[in-house]
Amino acid sequence: MNTLRQAVAGPSRRFHSLTLSDPIATTSQLPPVIERYIQRQRISDPSASSLPNPFSIHRSVASGAVQPRSISRRREKQLRFWFAPESLPPAPSATSTPFSHTLSDGTEASLAWQADQQIKAKKTLYEGRKVQFKGHKHERDRPERQRETEERLAGMEKRIAEWKRNKAEAKQSTKPALPF
């Protein structure tokens, strides 16, 4: 029988198995992992109405440093399998909608997940420069060499015929007149 391990709420962090016969959570339930994440975030900043998405990387408000995802991709996949999509933060590519939930301590929380911030792409070494990298010598000489090669190939049949004629003349001139 297929089983999936899921964290139980509380400090023990023990696991119990959910079998395929277990019901999938309703939209009113939050996964214990997400509920703990919300409580940790509310302790650190009680006035915040939006939380960073635990499924994606985000920038720290205090330091501006990039913070790794709080919940791994493997764990996210498990949560998406066992819980309704409405009870989970949106996937990094999806948009966020506000939701209301009663936490385990009885407080009503109206939350919205923060949109993912785009991390700036690094500029390439020569992006935006007027003069690009001069390249290697053989790269700079390549167009001229190709032009010369094409010119020589264009008259190749004539050159081959002339070479054969000269070769035959040279052979005849070095050949002795007498057979001995």
Nearest-angstrom radius of gyration?
A: 37 Å
Structural class: alpha+beta
Order of helices and strands: EEHEEEHEEHH
What is the CA-CA span between the terminal residues?
Answer: 100 Å
Q: Give the count of helical stretches.
A: 4
Number of strands: 7
Helix content: 25-40%
| Biggest sheet descriptor | 3 strands, mixed
Portion in strands: 5-15%
Strand order of the largest sheet: 3-7-6
Low-confidence runs (pLDDT<50, min 5 residues)?
1-27
Tell me the overall shape.
Answer: rod-shaped
Tell me, rounded to a whole number, the average pLDDT: 75
Number of domains: 2
Summarize the structure.
With 180 residues, the chain is of the alpha+beta class. Helices cover 33% and strands 14% of the residues. GO terms for molecular function: structural constituent of ribosome.
Describe, in plain words, how this protein is organized in 3D.
With 180 residues, the chain is of the alpha+beta class. The chain has 2 domains: 3-113, no CATH class; 137-174. The chain has 4 helices and 7 strands; from the N terminus they run E-E-H-E-E-E-H-E-E-H-H. The chain has helices at 32-44, 73-82, 137-154, 156-174, and strands spanning 3-7, 15-19, 50-51, 58-59, 66-67, 99-102, 108-113. Strands 3-7-6 form a 3-stranded mixed sheet, with no helix packed on it. Strands 1-2 form a two-stranded antiparallel ribbon. It has a two-stranded antiparallel ribbon with strand order 4-5. The N and C termini lie far apart (100 Å). The relative contact order is 0.11.
